[in-house]
Amino acid sequence: MNATAQAAQALSAAPPVRTDAERTLLVKVFGKDRPGITAGLFDRLAGFDVEVIDIEQVVTRGRITLCALVTPPAAPGAEGALRVTVHRWAEELRLQAEIISGTGDNRARGEGRSHVTVLGSPLTAGAVAALTSRVSAAGGNIDRVFRLAKYPVTAVELTISGVPTEELRAVLAAEAAAQRVDVAVVRSGLHRRAKRLIVMDVDSTLIQDEVIELFAAHAGCEEQVAAVTEQAMRGELDFAESLRARVALLAGLDAGVTEKVRAEVRLTPGARTLIRTLKRLGYQVAIVSGGFTQVTDHLVERLGLDFAAANTLEVEDGKFTGRVTGEIVDRAGKARWLARFAERAGVPLEQTVAIGDGANDLDMLNAAGLGVAFNAKPVVREQADTAVNVPFLDTVLYLLGVTREEVEAADELDGTPTED
């Protein structure tokens, strides 16, 4: 057989290309869920030699909605028999069935696809109504909705098409603030699942404390240090200048208090769960801090982190001198360390996630592939890619498409409590 004949034979054997003008049947079944419903429906459809084009199924509080988009049977009169067969089967199981005739596959989804994660504690119907109304007003369509978590916050993910991601983020940001829910909008695509390095700020992010204030409490100057810290975090004071001013107040403090400060540090709820889950997924995890290596080195060992950078308090004769040594980790320094960590990890910047709360985190958040403002100051929330304002650090997993059920299932296999 020559090449032309072989090509002709291959074309004749290939399945026909489906067009939007072809008829289809949408078979919908809903009612009380039980094992065997999906198998039962397709067993009935199999008797009519139909092709399956699409399947969707959801179970909510024990109620199933199952949809199957199929081609109509080819035999004359078989479509009527199919309808009778499906309805009789559904009645036997006390289910409801609906069969809708139409043309074509599902409507093509629009361009500009985004994943929108909504976090609420609680998530009210009014908030959902307001946000989804904003989506439709912007010309977007909600293609799918999926619950990510029901505890300790309610988290749902919406897949939206038809409106550019940046435009959608701007539209939903103001509404989220008005409804007191968190909304994260990220562009859809493989890159969303390719994040392989997460870099976190430490003070008021990975931990609940400001480390310098813990040291200051032992030096008797906590109020003075806290006031300067707040100015720096709001962006009202240069960080390097504020660091030197605060550290100077520690001059003469016995360096032995470091062990006490380490014991006083409180991890943010969800921190261990976040890191443990990221490690299971193959991520590398780093911290970068305007605080001090006297504490961050301990956190690296305690949590099994991959990289860390922080300032170092100078010690002479067992006492702090009121100075720091080496390169100061300030706003620009955090961004530099993000790039260094990415290079060491062999990860491009677009596959990094940065998490922080203060103005000195902004360069890092903007340099990363995804910047997350965690319980952040207003100036940070406004400029970051997305903001999370619930007090649980592991909610960042939901922004990456990881569900609470997946986390709990992995913890159960390891015999590890999910809660910190």
UniProtKB/TrEMBL annotation:
<dbReference type="Pfam" id="PF21086">
    <property type="entry name" value="ACT_PSP_2"/>
</dbReference>
<dbReference type="InterPro" id="IPR045865">
    <property type="entry name" value="ACT-like_dom_sf"/>
</dbReference>
<keyword id="KW-0460">Magnesium</keyword>
<feature type="domain" description="Phosphoserine phosphatase ACT">
    <location>
        <begin position="115"/>
        <end position="185"/>
    </location>
</feature>
<dbReference type="InterPro" id="IPR036412">
    <property type="entry name" value="HAD-like_sf"/>
</dbReference>
<dbReference type="InterPro" id="IPR049148">
    <property type="entry name" value="PSP_ACT"/>
</dbReference>
<dbReference type="InterPro" id="IPR050582">
    <property type="entry name" value="HAD-like_SerB"/>
</dbReference>
<dbReference type="InterPro" id="IPR004469">
    <property type="entry name" value="PSP"/>
</dbReference>
<keyword id="KW-0718">Serine biosynthesis</keyword>
<dbReference type="GO" id="GO:0036424">
    <property type="term" value="F:L-phosphoserine phosphatase activity"/>
</dbReference>
<feature type="active site" description="Nucleophile">
    <location>
        <position position="201"/>
    </location>
</feature>
<protein>
    <recommendedName>
        <fullName>phosphoserine phosphatase</fullName>
        <ecNumber>3.1.3.3</ecNumber>
    </recommendedName>
</protein>
<comment type="pathway">
    <text>Amino-acid biosynthesis; L-serine biosynthesis; L-serine from 3-phospho-D-glycerate: step 3/3.</text>
</comment>
<dbReference type="GO" id="GO:0006564">
    <property type="term" value="P:L-serine biosynthetic process"/>
</dbReference>
<dbReference type="Pfam" id="PF13740">
    <property type="entry name" value="ACT_6"/>
</dbReference>
<dbReference type="GO" id="GO:0000287">
    <property type="term" value="F:magnesium ion binding"/>
</dbReference>
<keyword id="KW-0378">Hydrolase</keyword>
<feature type="active site" description="Proton donor">
    <location>
        <position position="203"/>
    </location>
</feature>
<dbReference type="GO" id="GO:0005737">
    <property type="term" value="C:cytoplasm"/>
</dbReference>
<dbReference type="Pfam" id="PF12710">
    <property type="entry name" value="HAD"/>
</dbReference>
<comment type="similarity">
    <text>Belongs to the HAD-like hydrolase superfamily. SerB family.</text>
</comment>
<keyword id="KW-0479">Metal-binding</keyword>
<dbReference type="InterPro" id="IPR023214">
    <property type="entry name" value="HAD_sf"/>
</dbReference>
<keyword id="KW-0028">Amino-acid biosynthesis</keyword>
